[in-house]
Amino acid sequence: MIETSPSSPAPVDVVLPCLDEAEALPWVLDRIPSGWRAIVVDNGSTDGSADIARALGAHVVHEPRRGFGAACHAGLTAATADIVCFCDCDASLDPALLPTVAGLVLDGSADLVLGRRRPVTRRAWPLHARLANLELARLIRRRTGLRLHDLGPMRAARREWLHALDLTDRRSGYPLQMVVRAADAGWRVAETEVPYRPRTGRSKVTGTWLGTWHAVRDMRAVLAERPAAAPVSAATVPGTGR
């Protein structure tokens, strides 16, 4: 990875929520596209993840509030690039594929792009997590009309537009809230396939039935939210347009 100097802003910022990912970080950061900036959001790691990320040239942000959404939003707040990507920090997804995901936003083909996970082995995606994902896709279709197959953790959108969504969830519902509010605002949401590998280390969410249940509970709460009375569409964000 090539660190971008402050005088030469990165064309894309990559937000990497991180909780005890010391083993995966070297591989993940080495795969960040050249010239793009990695923002590692340390969410209370005790294994030295923050020091490793900093030593490898990443911009490190500390978010003491535990929660996937809290970490993601702290990264979004720290971002300065026009385009912001999100990617898991556990080596299950290859950051080298981010240009494929972000490319549809950069060329104006879509407003929010999700990486649809395609497991390369059965170990990559536990059965309970796959079943939960199928049910979630059905609920998203019923709530928004979007025919998505996966709530892909690898994703890209424009920074100002994401801020305009006024995302409030700070737990597992954050990625879903982003999709639901984007759909309510009339965004063009697209999917592109990305390989999904067994993660390095133990999952904090979908690695257990209990973690999956908590995630589904958070997401059901998001799906129960009423659409905003006057949602801000991407086309109306100041300084943007299609």
UniProtKB/TrEMBL annotation:
Family: Belongs to the glycosyltransferase 2 family.
Listed name of the protein: Glycosyltransferase
Key words, A-Z: Transferase
UniProt entry tagged with the keyword Transmembrane: no
Residue span, Glycosyltransferase 2-like domain: 14-163
Domain of life: Bacteria
GO terms assigned for molecular function: transferase activity
Species of the source: Streptomyces natalensis ATCC 27448
Gene3D superfamilies tied to this protein: Spore Coat Polysaccharide Biosynthesis Protein SpsA, Chain A
